[in-house]
Amino acid sequence: MAAAYSGADIMTNPLSPFTVYFSLNNGLSNTRPSLKRYLSQMKGMYADDEALDQLMQGSDPLVYEFHELGIPESDGNLAFGTSIVYPGKVGNEFYMTKGHFHTILDTAEVYYCIGGKGLMLMENPEGQCDVQEFTPGKAVYVPGRYAHRSINTGDEPLITFYVFRADAGHDYGTIETKGYRNIVVEQNKEVVLLDNPKWK
Ligand SMILES: O=P(O)(O)OC[C@H]1O[C@](O)(CO)[C@@H](O)[C@@H]1O
Ligand SMILES: [Fe+2]
Predict the structure, then answer these.
(1) For residue range 41-92, what is the model confidence (pLDDT) as tens digits?
(2) CATH topology for the 7-195 domain
């Protein structure tokens, strides 16, 4: 019989085999805490600053949460977890993650959609942009060099499971200063990709 699971095992390197449960209904783990990002942490990232300020009056909605398991950041390990982007809009722009490049730029990532509906918005430093659709069962491959942002275009939580090389790192600075070239908004009940008026 294998040794009983101990939570501490996963911090050792090399790792011992382990299992984590993520609910297929809401994406959350019953044993691992999630990291939460609230609208106040997304200031300046949406095109309509006024709409954000209005939404923030007396509240600070949860935009998304995700599980990071603390896997040691070495090139032989894989970081994985679930990400849940809640439905909502700032003005007419859909709720989304901050988005990031990987610090080791040429490292890829895979996202598998478990629930909800949305888009993966990508762009590389050369200015090539791409958008892929998330619906349950679809796996989206984010190649190296592409910044990636998950966007919920539906009425239910957008739940994805992600895997990437554990030492890839997160570069948020570039997106925070330059923004994305595109934004995703609702126009006449359609989901539309527009140029980002704030892009620098
Ligand atoms: O890191 P961001 O852009 O805030 O988005 C969070 C998601 O991206 C990841 O960093 C994976 O790339 C996850 O930890 C999380 O699901
Ligand atoms: Fe990533």
Answers:
(1) 999 999 999 999 999 999 999 999 999 999 999 999 999 999 999 999 999 9
(2) Jelly Rolls (2.60.120)
Q: In this structure, is the dihedral angle defined by the CA atoms of residues 86, 113, 175 and 76, taken in order, positive or negative? A: positive
83 in ligand 1 pocket by Cβ < 6 Å? Answer: yes
66 lines ligand 1 (CB under 6 A): yes
Q: Is 82 in the pocket of ligand 1 (CB under 6 A)?
A: no
* Extents of the domains making up the chain: 7-195
Burial class of 150 by CB neighbour count within 10 A (0 to 12, 13 to 18, 19+) = buried
Token pair 């990031």 is found at 100
Ligand 1 contacts CB of residue 36 (under 6 A): no
Tokens 């032989």 sit at which residue? 76
Atom 3 (ligand 1) nearest CA: 99
* Å from CA of 140 to ligand 2 middle: 12
pTM summary value: 0.94
**ipTM of model:** 0.92
Please enumerate in sequence order all residues whose Cβ is within 8 A of that of 159, keeping only pairs 6 or more positions apart, or say none.
26, 27, 82, 83, 84, 113, 114, 115, 116
Q: Which residues contact 54 (CB under 8 A, 6 or more apart)?
A: none
Q: What is the number of the ligand 1 atom nearest to the C-alpha of 148?
A: 3
Question: Helix (H, G, I), strand (E, B), or coil: what is residue 67?
Answer: coil
